[in-house]
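[Automated response] Your request has been received and processed.

Submitted sequence:
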Amino acid sequence: MNRKLKRLAATFVMLVMLMTAFTAQMFTAYAATGKITFSDPTVTVGNQVSVKMKIASSDGTALGASDVRLQYDSSALEFLSGTSANGGAGSIRVLGAMESENQTTFTFTLKFKALKAGTTSIKVTSQEVYDADSQMVTIDHVGSSAVKVSAPVTYSKDATLSSLTISPGELTPAFSADVTEYTAIVGGDVEKLTVSAPANDDKASVSVSGNEGLQLGENTITCKVTAEDGETTKTYTILVTKAETLPTESAEETAGVTSGGSATNLEEGNWKVEAAIDASIIPDGFTVIDFTYDGQPIQAATDENGNVLLYMTNDVGAGDFFLYDAENNVLVPYVYVRMAEKTVIVLSPEEMPEGTALPEGFIDCTIDIGSHTVQGWVWEDKSGAAPEYCIVYGQNEDGERNFYRYDQKEMTLQRFFQDPDAADLKVKYEEIAETYTNLLNDYKTRGNIIVGLAAACVLLVIIIIVLLLTRKPKAAPEETEVKEFVPTERRKAANAKKRREEEEMELVDLDDEDEDRFEPKHTEEKPAKKAPAKKKEAKKGSGAEAKSVEEMERDIVKSLAKEAGAAVAEQVAEEDDDFEFIDLDL
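Generated structure:
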């Protein structure tokens, strides 16, 4: 019993070890890890800089492919070229592929041109890395690049404002470049302030925050000025108090305003055209001109391509520029996308030349760019998934009009062209995603099966051990009489011999009976011992009687022999050739 238990225990331990090894082998594909690292170079404005990006396997797993998307500040850096990379306008896509067996790292070099001083970063927005077996690699460390752009000694350190105004409202005290703190009071229905804060140096940059979503009470608006050298900064603050009652407008503030009802405004809300424009807030590339709108002389802004901008305000005092299309008599919000390479003005579909073919496979849609909603087109996707980009109609700096692709996630714009391989790439990536999902489900199913088999094996071993421990020993078998195996021929011979002896005995008895039957009867009694002699004498004395008795004996013997032969034949036919037990006592 102890030996059997030891064997069962050893078998169970071996089974558990095999299952553990098999399970570990199955799920090894999900254990691969890696990291993405960058270099942090330093460069001077106007010069080129190289940024190194490295994808490395942490556990020595061979890498098969990678797809990484990067984001950078297009106003600080201009992308020039890169290893297996393409992009621009703030977004780059880098693709990697295995070049040699057991390759564990991918190295990429990205070249940029420094546009302005300061520290700017290059970040990873999405990444997909696969090993040599097309299994997903878990990236447990995603770094970024910090590019420090130094300014030449000739760059200005002026970080002051030339003026500061808000609309609606008035600053207290009056603006001075050396004064950095101001106050203002606005009505309770004002949600947003238009802040005009041009820098004293045209090459300095200004950022404004806190002027939207005003709450009742005190709100702080900041204007941060960064000098051309990228290091010198100065911050102006405006403490705005939002009161529950709307302040009374003065005659000065409402002078020169005319109705803009003669043109159809595509922006929601009640907007009206302002007669005067602050020259400090007009967009780059535009200049102030005298213009006649709805029979009234006003100020407008225009560029070298003939685009006309009108400044308008709504009921809550928010102001904005609108692009005036005199031919179609419509007003649309002035929506533009600023890129390092160029500026594109978003146009309405009504301004497309007649017969212009829309991009194939796209349907009409509306999209928010900045704080405005414009008309565009998105890819017709029957799955209902939210589109990541759309197509808009726009005009570049050279006056050329074309379709542009707007990335809703990265908020970048580039000229649209029909990619002949786009459909094939989409199908390919969908197949890869489907394969990965199927593999993941398969591994999960196998894991569940292994757990179930392990539980069943443990339960089976426990049942076997319990049965072995509770089984009673069997009683010793009783001794039985051993009979000798005798071949069939010998058995048949013995049976035949026995039958012959029985037949002879029967014949002897029959002879005695026949003799008694044919013996003459005498009146006198004879002694018993002399009977045989008389019998003999009787046989001799009567020839006819002796002959008759002899024939009867022969007939009886023949009849008995015939019956015995038939019985033996029947017995032999019924028996087979197997061995039988024969009692040796016979």
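Summary generated for your ticket: The longest helix spans residues 422-470. Confidence is low (pLDDT under 50) at residues 246-261, 521-546, 576-586.
If you did not submit this request, please reply to this message.
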